[in-house]
Specification:
Layout (H helix, E strand, L loop, with lengths): L1 E4 L4 E4 L7 E6 L10 H19 L3 E8 L15 H9 L3 H18 L7 E4 L4 H13 L3 E4 L2 E4 L15 H5 L16 E6 L17 E3 L3 H11 L3 E7 L3 H16 L4 E7 L2 E3 L2 E2 L10 H6 L4 H9 L7 E3 L1 H23 L7 H15 L5 H13 L5 H15 L15 H15 L3 H13 L2 E5 L5 E5 L1
Parallel strand pairs: 3-4, 3-10, 4-5, 10-11, 12-14
Antiparallel strand pairs: 1-2, 6-7, 7-8, 8-9, 12-13, 15-16
This protein binds adenosine monophosphate and zinc ion.
The site of adenosine monophosphate has 17 residues, from helix 1 and strand 10.
Length: about 475
C-alpha cells in the first residue's frame, strides 16, 4: 500500500507502527453550522481510505474530534469565536447549538454511508486533559504567558514549518501583518485564552492561568494521544489545515512527547463551487438534505466524489451531479439484472484477476477513479457469468460503499399524477420536444423518480 505523505511531498510505502493495526486521526467538524458537501468530500475521502485499509487487511482505529469550542473565524488567533457568533445569531445556548449541528453532521454521514469512526470525541469534554497538556509544554519551556494568555513558542520548537514547508525566516521578519502584540514570534499561537480575549465567552473553565478556554489546535493533540497513543500512523484533514492547524498540532505534540508524532499526513483537496471555495463563512454551502430535496440520492454524491482523486480539486456543478446520478442509476439497474439470475459457477481465477486490478488502483494512493473503472469493466464484461460478477461486486462494494446488496427494484405505485407525467413525457419524446421531455424528467426527479428508456421502447422507473 502506498500513500502520499504531505510531510515528505511524495508517495511512500505504507508501514504501520504495529503490524496489522492502523491508527488514524481525522480532524472533525466545527459544529457551528451545517456541514456542507465540501466538508463531506473530505470525510468521504477519509472513508475511502479507511475502507481501503480494511480491504488491505488492517484493523483500523479511527478517531475523530468534534470542535465545539475555541475555533476562531480565522484559523489563526484572530476574529470572532465561530460557536459564540452562531449561538448569538440563532439565539441558542452554545452547547445546544453544537449538539444540533453534530447530529445533523452524523445524519449526513449516514446518508453517505460513511463508516462512523471508532471514537468520536468532543473538545468540551476534554478540557482538563488540555490543561494538563499545556502544563507539560510550559514545564518543557515551550509555552509562555503574555497578556493573560498562554502561547506556544514556535521558535523554541526545532522544526516549526516542516509540514507546510513554510519560510519561517520570511515570516519572522514581518512578512505577515501580526495583530496580537503578545506574541513573541508571528507564528506563535494560543494554547489557552483567558478573558483577555472574549469577555463574553460563555464556555469557560478554571485553569492555572486563570479562567478561560482552550485555543483550537490543542484539542487534536490531546484527544489523538489520549485515544491512539503518542505515535500515530495517519493524520487526515483538508488541505486548508496544512499550514496552520496541522503545523501547530505537530509542533505541540512533538514538543510535548519529544519525538515524531505522525508518520503519514494525508490531505484532501477541496470541492469548489464555480471557482470559489465552498465555505460556511462565505455562505455558499450545499448540504445533503438540500440535494435530497432536489431529488438526488446522497449516494450519487458519494459516486461523484469517487470520480476525482482525493488530491485533485473537484468542481461541483449540477451537470456533474446529474451525470453521477445517471451513472449510479445505471449501476443500480445493472446490479438488479445481475442479481436476478445468479446461475453459473464462480470463476475464482477471473475473480482474483479483477480484484487484483481493483486493489492495484486502491493501494496506489487510493486511486478511486481507476478503481471505479475496474468495477465497471466487471459489470460490463460479457465473458463473466453473473455468479462471478456478483461475488466480485460484493467485495468491491466493501470499499465503494454504494450499498449494492440493498439495490432492488422499487415497487412502483403509479398514481394518476405520475401516470400523467409519464404520458406527457412520451408525447414530448414522440414530438422530439427534448426541452419539454427534460422538464418532465426534472419533475419526476423532484418526486423521487428517475426514468430510464429501455431498448424495447418501454420505460423503467427507478426510485432515487
Ligand atoms: P471545519 O468544520 O471547517 O473545521 O472543516 C471540516 C473539514 O472539512 C476539514 O478537514 C476541512 O479541511 C474540510 N473542508 C472545509 N472546506 C472544504 C471544501 N470546500 N472541500 C473539501 N474539504 C473541505
Ligand atoms: Zn485537528
Amino acid at each position: 500500500m502506498r500513500l502520499y505523505n504531505t510531510l515528505n511531498r511524495c508517495v511512500e510505502e505504507f508501514k504501520p507502527i504495529q503490524e496489522g493495526q492502523v491508527s488514524m486521526y481525522c480532524c472533525g467538524p466545527t459544529v457551528y453550522s451545517y456541514a456542507h458537501i465540501g466538508n463531506l468530500r473530505t470525510y468521504l475521502n477519509e472513508d475511502f481510505l479507511h475502507r481501503t485499509l480494511e480491504r488491505a487487511g488492517y484493523t483500523v482505529h479511527h478517531v475523530m474530534n468534534i470542535t465545539d469550542v475555541g475555533h476562531l473565524t480565522s484559523d489563526e488567533d484572530t476574529g470572532e469565536d465561530k460557536m459564540l457568533k452562531a449561538a448569538e445569531q440563532e439565539k441558542m445556548d452554545v452547547l445546544a447549538l453544537a449538539r444540533k449541528y453534530e447530529d445533523f453532521f452524523f445524519e449526513e454521514e449516514k446518508d453517505l454511508n460513511i463508516i462512523r469512526p471508532e471514537k468520536v470525541c468532543r473538545a468540551t469534554e476534554h478540557v482538563q486533559d488540555m490543561i494538563e497538556f499545556v502544563k507539560k509544554l510550559e514545564e518543557k519551556g515551550l509555552a509562555y504567558v503574555a497578556g493573560g494568555n498562554v502561547y506556544f513558542d514556535t521558535m523554541k520548537f526545532g522544526h516549526y514549518g516542516e509540514l507546510s514547508h513554510k519560510d519561517i525566516d520570511g515570516l519572522q521578519h514581518g512578512a505577515r501583518v501580526e495583530e496580537d502584540t503578545n506574541k513573541r514570534n508571528p507564528t506563535d499561537f494560543v494554547l489557552w485564552f483567558t478573558s483577555s480575549k472574549f469577555e463574553n465567552q460563555i464556555l469557560q473553565w478554571d485553569s492555572p492561568w486563570g479562567r478561560g478556554y482552550p485555543g483550537w489546535h490543542i484539542e487534536c493533540s490531546v484527544m489523538s494521544s489520549k485515544y491512539l497513543g503518542e505515535r500515530i500512523d495517519i493524520h487526515c484533514g483538508g488541505v486548508d489545515h496544512v499550514s496552520v492547524h496541522h503545523e501547530n498540532e505537530k509542533a505541540q505534540s512533538e514538543g510535548c512527547f519529544g519525538h515524531k508524532w505522525v508518520n503519514y499526513w494525508v490531505h484532501n483537496e477541496f470541492l469548489q463551487l464555480k471557482d470559489m471555495k465552498m465555505s460556511k463563512s462565505l455562505g455558499n454551502i450545499l448540504t445533503i438534505p438540500a440535494l435530497k430535496e432536489k431529488g438526488y440520492n446522497p449516494l450519487a454524491y458519494r459516486y461523484l466524489a469517487m470520480t476525482a482523486h482525493y488530491r485533485s480539486l473537484l468542481q461541483f456543478t449540477w451537470e456533474a451531479l446529474d451525470v453521477a446520478q445517471k451513472s449510479y442509476d445505471n449501476l443500480k439497474a445493472r446490479v438488479i439484472e445481475i442479481k436476478k439470475d445468479l446461475t453459473g459457477i464462480v470463476d475464482n481465477e477471473k475473480k482474483k484477476n479483477a480484484l487484483d486490478k481493483f486493489d492495484h488502483a486502491l493501494f496506489n494512493d487510493i486511486a478511486m477513479p481507476q478503481a471505479l473503472a475496474v468495477m465497471w469493466e466487471v459489470v460490463k464484461d460479457s465473458d463473466l457469468n453473473n455468479a462471478t460478477k456478483w461475488t466480485i461486486l460484493l467485495d468491491m462494494d466493501k470499499v465503494l460503499g454504494l450499498n449494492m446488496d440493498q439495490m432492488q427494484e422499487e415497487k412502483v405505485e403509479i398514481d394518476s399524477e405520475l401516470q400523467a407525467l409519464l404520458d406527457a413525457r412520451k408525447i414530448a419524446r414522440q414530438e422530439k420536444n427534448w426541452a419539454k421531455s427534460d422538464e418532465i424528467r426534472d419533475s419526476l426527479k423532484a418526486k423521487g423518480w428517475t426514468v430510464k428508456d429501455l431498448p424495447d421502447g418501454t420505460v423503467q422507473l427507478l426510485k432515487i
